[in-house]
Amino acid sequence: MSDYSAIDHGQEAGFGDYVQLLKPRVMSLVVFTAMVGLIVAPGGVHPFVAFTAILFIALGGGASGALNMWYDADIDRVMRRTASRPIPSGKVGEGEALGLGLALSGLSCLMLGLAANWFAGLFLAFTIFFYVVIYTMWLKRLTPQNIVIGGAAGAFPPMIGWAVVTGGVSIESLLMFALIFMWTPPHFWALCLFMKDDYSKAGVPMLTVTHGRKATRKHILVYTILLAPFAFALAASSIGGPVTLVAALVLNALFIRGAVRIVRRDEAVAEADGYKAEKAFFKFSLAYLFLHFGALLVEASLQPFGFGGW
Question: Where are the transmembrane segments (predicted)?
């Protein structure tokens, strides 16, 4: 892997370039779901411990992003969506990204272990390993099921937040994991539908490349339907309640309706209108997850007043 440094391109990296290296948009999802997992967990921890735990979980998520960008620099240069990232644009060298990713990985896991408990610290270390090694280095370029299996990495944060408080795993944390795990394929495949030939050019065997867009549309519908039972199971759990149940009913009805609309779409028609339905489905998928976890927060905030929960 060649090192494209900032000097090679005559550009200097600014603070924002290093922030982009940490994938802040992905980090925001990691932080939010981990925070929810921490807040809804039974018992609670001191606010300072909670703050530091979320901070180190965020740094761990950022470390994963930096290591992902380091390893994927070759394909990022080929893909239109990623060509402007710090490494392909020549603002940050691959060696810098690797060093930053490794340093933040070690720091975040060590400090989370010291601040909270070692189970949570080791869980964060496993999550980083899973995303970087299992998904990025192995599955992503090997199988069209890459995002299905690799999606587990993005589903671990609420379990880590839960572990910060409880020091372990429970059915509730597993249900939060399952919701994100089953949500990830339709969310990401919707993106692939309107990414044109980016993954094909990069040689990445995404489902749209190996099986075509028609098959991808069917897979989106299947996973969207399979996702719903996990949403209702979470609503029925000890951290769920009426608010979460209403959210599950409304959000899953809308999500399935969107998937049905997508599977009925002819590719030529979709391309002609700029993949409007696919883009709308992708945007709604983000709202779907945030609103589900937001409902859990509302449920937890109402319980001290005798509302929320079952």
Answer: 26-45, 51-71, 92-113, 119-139, 146-165, 171-194, 220-237, 243-260, 281-302
